[in-house]
Write a structure and sequence with these properties.
Distance between the termini: 14 Å
Strand content: 15-25%
CATH class of the largest domain: Alpha Beta
CATH topology of the largest domain: FAD/NAD(P)-binding domain
Shape: globular
Low-confidence stretches: 369-382
CATH superfamily of the largest domain: FAD/NAD(P)-binding domain
Strand order of the largest sheet: 9-16-10-11-12
Number of domains: 2
Bound molecules: flavin-adenine dinucleotide
Largest sheet: 5 strands, parallel
CATH architecture of the largest domain: 3-Layer(bba) Sandwich
Radius of gyration: 21 Å
Structural class: alpha/beta
Helix content: 25-40%
Mean pLDDT: 92
């Protein structure tokens, strides 16, 4: 979505009214969030100020949720009840965690993690305070956050102030990654005093405890909900064609099936022919330039009176491999792709270079040159 904001400035000058609707004025960059919770980055270094980007691009920004979508009438209704009619719309609202429990802090959308950061800071600022944290979900997000939070307490010499337990439904951490990598991170976490509960699910969250499916109660001041990805409720309600997990099915041109004026990209969409792609930022970022180009082409075609089936749109081609680098709360990074993984200090340095380079395009905190450098936004990596 971010590359699109750059072009939106030019579209506004051509008389196109562009609106960005987002539940939060800040987009948190997931590549850096675990290390934000690990105390490596400040909050303003890991988030993008959407309102500010919109102001600069001449785009109207509305801070609200898209509550209802009517693709037949082409209307999006905000949570505040405002109807927004569109000629062309793009939905890039990410995924949601399956089965979120009301008292838990969700990882999707990511701005929710501020509540965890506040509690971590409050604990570290007061010598006698403790934090009992349960992480529900031992996949990539839960594990990377647990590694960083344990690393931060260790760095402050306050490991004794943290009781962290990861609860994972399958029989090991990182079930979608190489077994030896899961074993390695499990060892790291245990060395730092974390408890692992594998083969278990969190069934209930109370004010001061999480209840497991074997009815044991874990005392908890906070429960982080990082249980994977399912599609947003909005889509089924809108009657969009969705896959079995509720993600909108889109064509390789990122158009929703049966609604060519409605585009969807990123985690919330499943692209025909690429159904097995993981919901990771690497793929979402690669879709950005295609989305941007196709919105532009669709607007031009509409102005010329061309019917949607004749629109000359670009198609999305994913990377054949999407490697990830995990931070570990220590000066070491873990690189993984398919069945392979490696660990070294230089991998963490590489991750820092890639992450900072990516966010610099949108975040003036990282931009020594001053103003936003949006011109090369299409080259984004994650
Ligand atoms: C802790 C963590 C770490 C991760 N690390 C990596 C990594 O290192 N590398 C990697 O490739 N992937 C990583 N991922 C996955 C990555 O975050 C996602 O794949 C990526 O953010 C998807 O981008 P997106 O634009 O589709 O959605 P998002 O980044 O989730 O953005 C969705 C936006 O939509 C807004 N929104 C949601 N619902 C509505 C609504 N109804 N109305 C209006 N606005 C709405 C949200 O506020 C948000 O701004 C990580 C995920 C997590 C949770």
């Amino acid at each position: 979505m971010l590359p699109t904001l750059y072009d939106a400035g030019r579209w506004s000058a051509r008389g196109v009214r562009v609106t960005l609707l987002d539940s939060s004025p800040f987009l948190y960059y997931s590549g850096m969030v675990p290390e934000f919770l690990g105390g490596v980055y400040d909050r303003d270094e890991v988030r993008i100020n959407l309102r500010r980007l919109c102001d600069r691009a001449g785009v109207r920004f509305i801070e609200s949720r898209a509550q209802h979508l009517d693709p037949e009438r082409r209307v999006v209704t905000t949570a505040d009840g405002e109807p927004l009619s569109y000629d062309v719309a793009a939905v890039d609202i990410g995924a949601q965690n399956p089965g979120p429990l009301p008292r838990a802090i969700r990882t999707k959308p990511l701005y929710h993690i501020e509540a965890l950061e506040d509690r971590i800071r409050a604990t570290l600022d007061r010598p006698r305070r403790r934090l009992r944290l349960v992480v529900a979900g031992g996949g990539a997000a839960g594990v990377e956050i647990a590694l960083n939070v344990t690393g931060r307490f260790a760095h402050h010499d306050r490991s004794d102030a943290l009781d962290l337990t990861i609860v994972e439904g399958s029989d090991r951490l990182l079930p979608n990654f190489p077994t030896s990598m899961g074993d390695y991170v499990a060892g790291l976490l245990e060395t730092r005093g974390a408890q692992l509960e594998t083969g278990r699910l969190v069934e209930a969250v109370h004010e001061d405890a999480a209840v497991l499916d074997d009815q044991r109660t874990l005392p908890a001041d906070r429960v982080l909900w990082s249980t994977g990805s399912v599609g947003p409720d909005l889509f089924e309600d809108a009657g969009l064609v969705c896959d079995e997990k509720g993600f909108a099915r889109v064509t390789p041109t990122l158009q929703c099936m049966g609604f060519p004026r409605l585009f969807a990209a990123g985690d919330c969409a499943t692209v025909a022919g690429h159904e097995a792609l993981r919901k990771v930022g690497v793929h979402a970022v690669k879709q950005g330039p295609v989305l941007r180009a196709n919105l532009e082409l669709a607007l031009s075609a509409l102005t010329a009176g061309q019917a949607p089936h004749a629109w000359p749109l670009d198609t999305f081609e994913p990377y054949w491999m999407a490697p990830l680098i995990f931070s570990t709360g220590a000066p070491e990074g873990l690189w993984t792709a398919g069945p392979f993984w490696l660990r070294s200090r230089s991998l963490l340095r590489l991750k820092h270079v890639i992450d900072r380079r990516w966010i610099r395009r949108y975040n003036p905190v990282w931009d020594d040159a001053g103003p936003f450098q949006l011109a090369d936004a299409t080259a984004a990596t994650m």
